[in-house]
Write a structure and sequence with these properties.
This protein folds into three domains: 9-139, NAD(P)-binding Rossmann-like Domain (Rossmann fold, 3-Layer(aba) Sandwich); 146-309, Dihydrodipicolinate Reductase, domain 2; 350-430, Alpha-Beta Plaits. 33% of the residues lie in helices and 27% in strands. It has helices spanning 9-14, 27-37, 73-77, 94-103, 113-129, 146-153, 168-180, 184-193, 202-205, 208-221, 241-249, 311-326, 365-375, 405-415; strands at 18-23, 45-51, 68-70, 83-86, 107-110, 134-135, 159-165, 224-225, 232-233, 252-263, 266-277, 289-296, 300-307, 341-342, 345-346, 350-359, 380-384, 394-404, 421-430. Strands 7, 9, 10, 11, 12, 13 and 15 form a seven-stranded mixed beta sheet that branches. It has a six-stranded parallel beta sheet with strand order 3-2-1-4-5-6, sandwiched between helices. It has a four-stranded antiparallel beta sheet with strand order 17-18-16-19. The longest helix is centred in the N-terminal third of the chain and has 17 residues, at 113-129. The chain starts with 8 loop residues before the first helix and ends in a 5-residue tail after the last strand. It binds NADP nicotinamide-adenine-dinucleotide phosphate. NADP nicotinamide-adenine-dinucleotide phosphate (NAP) binds at residues 24-29, 52-53, 87-89, 93, 111-113, 138, 142, 309-311, 314.
C-alpha cells in the first residue's frame, strides 16, 4: 500500500477506508476492535480481519458480520488488509509476522515494546524499504502519547535526557508498601489480585519491561541505538516497608526509576529502585500511573503522565497510530528515517547512595563499615537507626556522599565479605529533583 504523502480532506473523503487486521484478540486487541467498531460511518479505518489461535472462542456479537475471524495467519497476511495491528506480544512469531507484513508493503502498528526494543531499527528500515509505515506509539506508557511528543512535539529541541516511571506494576507495588506498610510479597499478591501484575511478575519487578521502554525512548528521544541487555537493571524485590520509613526521614520516597542520558559520546542508562525527593514529580506518581520526563538543551524539562497500561488506554494509542497512518503521516516512513547513533552504554552514574544493612549486632560494626568505605575513598553522610529491632537481625541505614556507581560497587564487593551481615546490603541511588 502506498502511503498518501499529505492528508487532504477532500481526497480523503473520496478514498475507501483503510482495511485493518488485528492479530491477537486479547486485552488490547479486543479494546482496539471495540473502538474501531464504534467509529463514525465516514471513518478512514475499517476493521476487516481478526486473527487469533482457536479464534472461535473469541467471537463477540458486537463485531459486525462482515469481519473475517481467522486462525490462519497466512490467509490474513495475504489478505487485502492495508494495516496489520500486531497485539499478540512476545518476540516470536510476532517478529516474523511483522517482517512478512512490512515486506509485502502492509503498514504495521504494534504495542509490543519487547520486540521494538530489540528489533525496532531493523523493522523500521524494512518498513522504509517497502514504502510501509511502522508505528509503535502504544509501546511506551500505554495511553500517554510520549513517542509522538518526543518525535514530533519536541523535534525542535536537542534532548539529552529521558527518565521516568515506566512500569505501572512496580509503581503500584511500591506505593502499596509505602501506604500500607506491608511486605513486597504481600503487595505483589494484591497487585496480582487487582489485575496489575502477571502470574509471573519477573519482567515487571526485575525491571526488564521498563528497560525495553527505556531503549525505545532512548532511540526516539536521544537518537541513540541501545540494546536492552546493555542497560543495568535492579529488581524491586528487596524493597521493604522499612526502606520507606528511612527514606521518609531523608525527605524522599522510593520509585522504580528508568533513566537514560546522552553525555560525552556515551549513553548513561539504568533501571532501578531509587530514592527521589518527596517534592519531585516522580514522588507524586502513585498507583499504576506512569510519568516520562524529557530534558532538552533549549526547552528544558517537559513532563508527560497518565495511564501507562490497561486495555482501553493502550487501545487509544493504537487507534491514534492507525489514524495517523490514514492521514498519510506515520511512524518512521513518511518522516525521513530518524538518524540514531550506536553508542557505548554505561551505568556509571554519580550520585549519593542509600545502603541498608541487616546485621547480627555486636561492637565495632559501624567502624568496620566506615573503614571499608574509606578504603575506597567513599564518605559517609549520615547513619540512621530506629530503636526496637531484634539484635539478631538489626537493620540500619548508612547514606553516602556522591560517588560513581563503579566506585561503590568495588566497595560493596568488600562490604559483602563482612561476617556480621545477615544478608547482602541493599543499595539504592539517592536522586535529586532533576534526576
Ligand atoms: N495490556 C496492557 O495494558 C498493555 C499495555 C501496553 C502494551 N501492551 C502490549 O500489547 C500487546 C498485547 O498485550 P495484551 O495485554 O492484549 O495481551 P493478551 O491479553 O495476552 O492478548 C494476546 C492475544 O494474542 C493471542 N496470541 C498470543 N500468542 C499467539 C500466537 N502465537 N498465535 C495466535 N494468537 C496468539 C492470545 O491468544 P490466547 O487467548 O489463546 O492466549 C491473546 O488473545 C503486548 O505486546 C503487550 O506488551 C499491553
Amino acid at each position: 500500500m502506498a502511503i498518501t504523502p499529505a492528508f487532504d480532506q477532500a481526497s480523503r473523503a473520496q478514498m475507501p477506508a483503510l482495511k485493518v487486521a488485528i492479530l491477537g484478540f486479547g486485552t488490547v486487541g479486543s479494546a482496539v476492535a471495540r473502538i474501531l467498531c464504534d467509529q463514525p460511518a465516514h471513518s478512514p479505518l475499517r476493521l476487516t480481519h481478526v486473527y487469533n489461535r482457536n479464534v472461535e472462542r473469541k467471537r463477540v456479537d458486537w463485531v459486525t458480520g462482515d469481519v473475517c475471524w481467522s486462525s490462519n495467519i497466512d490467509e490474513v497476511l495475504a489478505s487485502d488488509a492495508d494495516i496489520i495491528v500486531e497485539l499478540i506480544g512476545g518476540m516470536d512469531p510476532a517478529h516474523e509476522w511483522i517482517s512478512r507484513a512490512l515486506t509485502s508493503g502492509k503498514s504495521v502498528v504494534t504495542a509490543n515494546k519487547k520486540l521494538i526494543a530489540k528489533h525496532g531499527p531493523e523493522l523500521s528500515a524494512l518498513a522504509c524499504k517497502h514504502g510501509a509505515a511502522l508505528s509503535f506509539g502504544a509501546s511506551v506508557a500505554g495511553g500517554v502519547p510520549v513517542i509522538d511528543a518526543l518525535q514530533e512535539g519536541l523535534a525542535g529541541d536537542q534532548l539529552y535526557k529521558v527518565s521516568g516511571i515506566l512500569n505501572g506494576t512496580c509503581n503500584y507495588i511500591l506505593t502499596k508498601i509505602e501506604s500500607e506498610g506491608i511486605s513486597f510479597e504481600e503487595a505483589l499478591v494484591e497487585a496480582q489480585r487487582a489485575g496489575f501484575a502477571e502470574a509471573d511478575p519477573t519482567d515487571d519487578v526485575d525491571g526488564f519491561d521498563a528497560r525495553s521502554k527505556l531503549v525505545i525512548l532512548s532511540r526516539i528521544g536521544l537518537k541513540a541505538i541501545v540494546q536492552p541487555e546493555q542497560i543495568h537493571c535492579d529488581s524491586i524485590r528487596r524493597i521493604g516497608a522499612i526502606d520507606f520509613t528511612y527514606s521518609h526521614e531523608l525527605g524522599c520516597t522510593i520509585r522504580q526509576i528508568s533513566r537514560a542520558e546522552r553525555r560525552e559520546g556515551q549513553i548513561y542508562a539504568a533501571v532501578q529502585p531509587a530514592l527521589v525527593p518527596i517534592d519531585s514529580p516522580m514522588a507524586h506518581i502513585t498507583g499504576s500511573l506512569n510519568i516520562v520526563l524529557s530534558s532538552g538543551k533549549y526547552g528544558g524539562q517537559t513532563a508527560f503522565s497518565g495511564h501507562g497500561a490497561g486495555g482501553h488506554s493502550t487501545a487509544v494509542a493504537v487507534v491514534s497510530d492507525l489514524l495517523d497512518i490514514a492521514r498519510g503521516r506515520s511512524g518512521d516512513n513518511v518522516r525521513p528515517q530518524i538518524a540514531a547513533d550506536v553508542l557505548p552504554v554505561t551505568g556509571n552514574f554519580t550520585s549519593a547512595h542509600y545502603l541498608r544493612f541487616t546485621v547480627h549486632d555486636r561492637p565495632g560494626i559501624v567502624a568496620a563499615i566506615a573503614n571499608t568505605l574509606a578504603a575506597h575513598s567513599i564518605n559517609i553522610d549520615a547513619l540512621l537507626q530506629k530503636p526496637g529491632y531484634n539484635k539478631d537481625a538489626l537493620p540500619f541505614v548508612v547514606t553516602l556522599e556522591q560517588c560513581p556507581t563503579e566506585q561503590l560497587e568495588a566497595a560493596m564487593r568488600d562490604l559483602r565479605k563482612l561476617d556480621f551481615l545477615v544478608h547482602a546490603p541493599l543499595t539504592m541511588p539517592i536522586l535529586t529533583k532533576e534526576l
